[in-house]
Amino acid sequence: MSEDFDEPLRRQLDAFLDEHRRMLAACLDGLTEEQARRRLVPSKTTLLGLVKHVTFVEKVWFDEAVTGRSRAEIGIPRTPDQSFVLKPGDTVASVREAYEKACDESRSATASLSLDDLLPGNRRGPLPLRWVYLHVLRELAQHCGHADILREQILAA
Hints:
By secondary structure, this protein is mainly α. The protein has helices at residues 3-26, 33-37, 47-67, 71-74, 92-110, 129-156; strands at 118-119, 127-128. It has 6 helices and 2 strands; from the N terminus they run αααααββα.
């Protein structure tokens, strides 16, 4: 693919990722700690848990996949399900801060990479950054939808 095409595409993908990152962080705006932790579905999904999970997503795809470091080295759970689990000390402020830091680290980790660069640290084997961007964008979009529904239910109560 030509670099003339990839550069604008990269800017668009970065913009879409950042837009969804902002929307997920904003799902916690104005909520009490109790509201952010409220479970409205049988799964572990809460608004605070969603933001904690997408912090995990950032670290899996933009640390583990880029660097090849293990999840234990990074300090994240082994499985996606475990990433939703809230600890007693997790607060709206601390989870949001960790998420924003992870997003900043993701941007830094990929700044010098091209969309065709292969990321060596995925369990599936090397994947191009383009694939990772599209995968993360899809996941963030799904979680934004989950967050919208949960937030609407919480605010309607």
